[in-house]
Amino acid sequence: MIKQYGKVMVLMKKEQYLGVDVSPLNYEEIIDDIRQRIEAGKQSTIIAVNPEKVMAANNNSDLKNLINDSTYQIPDGVGIILASKLKKGNIRSRVTGVDMMERLIRFAAEEDRKVFLYGAKEEVVVKAKKNLEEKYQGLNIVGYENGYVQDQEALLKKINDSEAELLFVAMGSPKQELWIQENKPKLAVKVFQGVGGSFDVFAGKVQRAPKVYRQLGLEWFYRLIKEPKRLKRQMALPKFLIKILLTK
C-alpha cells in the first residue's frame, strides 16, 4: 500500500523477520499516518519490536498474532536495523518506544489532542504527567490512573468520559498490549501505545543512556553495563541474527 505525505510517497510495505511484521516508517511518517487515521475515525495501535520480542513471538503464536495485528510495529532495537540491512530491507533507523511516545505527546500538544495516562505507580504517573505538561505548553492530559486500579469497568468509563484520543499504557510487555487488545473495542480512544517503563523516564525516576550511546544504537550496551543481570536477555540478539542469516 502506498500513502502520500505532501509530495513524499511512502511505501507502506512491512518487512517481516521470523514471521513478525515490522513497520518501515519513521517518526514523522507515523505521525502523518496517525493524523489521517484519526480524521477518518480509525483506531491505531503501536507496539515496539526488538530481537528479544521477535524470538519470544517465534515460539508463541499468540504473541506473534498480537504483534502482527497492530497498526505499527516500530523497530525499537538495533538488531532489527541489522536484520533489515542483512535482508536488503528499507529500515534504517530505530523508532524507540519512549521517543515515539514523546513525539506523540508533542503532536497532541500542537494539535490539541486529549491524552490519558494509565499505568505505573501513583507517584510515577503523577510526576510524569506534571513534567510532560511543564515541557509541552498546551498539552491536555485529561486523565490518568495508576497501574494498580482494580475496577476495570470504572477505569474504562473514566477513559471514555475524558474523551481522550491518545492513551499510553505502562504495564510492561506483553501485559500492556494484551490489555489494549482486550479493551480497544470498548474505548473511543483513537491511538493506543504500550510504553513499558516510559513513565519512569518522564518522571525522572530512570535515566536513559547518554545521547551518544543512543545515536550509535548502543543503548542496550549502556544498560548492560549498568545492569549486568541483563546479559541473559541480551543473548537474544546474536541468536536472532543467526536465525535471520539462516532464513531465506
TrEMBL record:
Catalytic activity: UDP-N-acetyl-alpha-D-mannosamine + N-acetyl-alpha-D-glucosaminyl-di-trans,octa-cis-undecaprenyl diphosphate = N-acetyl-beta-D-mannosaminyl-(1->4)-N-acetyl-alpha-D-glucosaminyl di-trans,octa-cis-undecaprenyl diphosphate + UDP + H(+)
CDD domains per UniProt: Glyco_transf_WecG_TagA (cd06533)
Pfam families named among the record's database cross-references: Glyco_tran_WecG
Keyword Transmembrane helix on entry: no
BP GO terms, sorted: cell wall organization; teichoic acid biosynthetic process
Pathway: Cell wall biogenesis; teichoic acid biosynthesis
InterPro entries recorded: TagA_TarA, WecG_TagA_CpsF
GO MF term (any one): N-acetylglucosaminyldiphosphoundecaprenol N-acetyl-beta-D-mannosaminyltransferase activity
UniProt KW keywords: Cell wall biogenesis/degradation, Glycosyltransferase, Teichoic acid biosynthesis, Transferase
Enzyme Commission number, as recorded: 2.4.1.187
Coiled coil residues, start to end: none
Top EC group: transferase
Claim: Cell wall biogenesis/degradation is one of the keywords in the record: yes
Domain of life: Bacteria
Entry's family note: Belongs to the glycosyltransferase 26 family. TagA/TarA subfamily.
Protein purpose: Catalyzes the conversion of GlcNAc-PP-undecaprenol into ManNAc-GlcNAc-PP-undecaprenol, the first committed lipid intermediate in the de novo synthesis of teichoic acid.
Official protein name in the record: N-acetylglucosaminyldiphosphoundecaprenol N-acetyl-beta-D-mannosaminyltransferase
